[in-house]
C-alpha cells in the first residue's frame, strides 16, 4: 500500500525538536512492505493541518498523522481533523474515565481535552490514556498517533503495522533491504560504477546517500514470495560486493573507528597518533569507542614545526627539503609517535585544510599520511575538496580507513576525492 506521513507541531517546524517520529514510521512501514510517497511537517495551524490531510487522503491508500493530540492550547490536531472532514467531536467516556483516575488530572483539568475525538474514531489501545486512534474516511485508514516518540513507536509497532497488514491484503510486498557503508569513492563515481547493474535488473532499487565523508548505498528488493525476494537480493548483493570490493567497510551499521578498534584489540596491537591539520580529530573518533584504552596509547597534535621536531623527532633537513606537508614528514611523524609511546602502529596526518596556506605545488586540500609499523612505514598523499571543516573530516576518516586497510591486509586507496 502507498501511504503518506504528516508530522504536526511548531516545535518541529521551528527546528527546536528533531522529527524522529516520521523517520521511525517510514522505516518500519517500508520494512513491512508499504511505500511512503510523501512526508510533510506542519505547524500548529488548523487550516494547514486540514489542507495537508485532505490532500494526502486524495493521493494515498493510508495516512499516518503524528503530534498535536495533547491537552495544551497548541494541540489542535483533533479539532482540525474534525473540521477538515466535517465530523463532530464527541467525548469518549472510556478515555475520560482513565484520565480521571490519574493524579495528573487533579492538577490539570485540561486533560479532559484528550478524551474529545472526532466522531467515528476507533481507539487504538483501549484502556490506555494514550489517545491514538484510527479513522476510516472514504474507506481509507487514517492513523492518529501522539508526537511523544516512545508513545508513537509503541502504537506504530503494536497497532498500526498489524492493522495495515490485514487491511492491505495481497497488495503488500515482501521487502529486503541492506545498507552498505562505502568510503573513499564519491557519489558520482559510485553511481557510474553501479549503473549497468541498475539497468540490468529492474527488481533492484539502489539508493545513494552521502553522509559526511562517506556514502551509504541502500539495496532494496521487493517480491511477492520469499523465494523470489531472497534470490533477487542475493544476486544484487553479490554484484555490489564484486564491483565495490573493499571500499565497502560494513553493512551492519559499524563505524570506521569501531572496526579499527576491534581489529586492534583482536590482533593485540596498540596505536599512537601524530596529527597536524586534523587537530586531534582522529583521536576524538578513536576514543568514542568504549574500551579504546585497551589499544590506544595516545596522540600528539603537532601543529608547529618546532613541535614536530622536538617531540616527534622529525628531522630539520626533512622539513626544509620537503616541507611540513609531505609524505616524508608524515612518515617521520608516524615513526616518532610510535617510538615515543611504544605503540605497535603509528598514524600521522599533516596537510593544508585551508582556506589559506596553499600553493600551486601544494594546493589547499593537500594532505599527507603515513602508517608506521615496526618493520616499515607506508606514506600516502591525497587531495580533498571542500571547506576547512570538510577537508579535516575527510582527512580524519581517511586516516581511519588507512588503518582499517592496513590491519585487514587490504589494498590502499590511490587518489584523493
Describe the structure in your own words.
The chain is an alpha/beta fold. It has three domains: 2-171, Molybdenum Cofactor Biosythetic Enzyme, Chain A; 174-250, 2-Layer Sandwich (Alpha-Beta Plaits), CATH 3.30.70; 256-408, Maf protein (Alpha-Beta Complex). The chain has 15 helices and 17 strands. The protein has helices at residues 10-13, 20-31, 46-59, 77-84, 93-100, 103-107, 149-168, 187-200, 226-244, 256-266, 281-286, 305-310, 316-322, 327-341, 388-408; strands at 2-8, 35-42, 62-66, 89-91, 116-118, 122-123, 133-137, 140-145, 174-183, 204-211, 214-223, 248-250, 271-275, 296-301, 345-351, 366-372, 377-383. The strands form four sheets. Strands 2-1-3-8-7-6 form a six-stranded mixed β-sheet, with helices on both faces. A five-stranded mixed β-sheet has the order 14-13-15-16-17, with helices on both faces. Helix 2 (20-31) packs parallel to helix 7 (149-168) and helix 10 (256-266) packs parallel to helix 15 (388-408). The radius of gyration is 28 Å and the shape is elongated.
Q: Order of strands across the biggest sheet?
A: 2-1-3-8-7-6
Structural class: alpha/beta
Count of strand segments: 17
In CATH terms, the superfamily of the largest domain is MoaB/Mog-like domain
C-alpha-based Rg, rounded: 28 Å
Query: N- to C-terminal separation?
Result: 41 Å
Helix content percent band: 40-55%
Low-confidence stretches: none
Instruction: Figure out the total of helices.
Output: 15
Oligomeric assembly: single chain
Strand content: 15-25%
State the CATH topology of the largest domain. Molybdenum Cofactor Biosythetic Enzyme, Chain A
Whole-number count of domains: 3
The CATH architecture category of the largest domain equals 3-Layer(aba) Sandwich
The CATH class of the largest domain: Alpha Beta
Q: Report mean pLDDT, rounded to a whole number.
A: 90
Shape: elongated
- Largest sheet, described in full? 6 strands, mixed
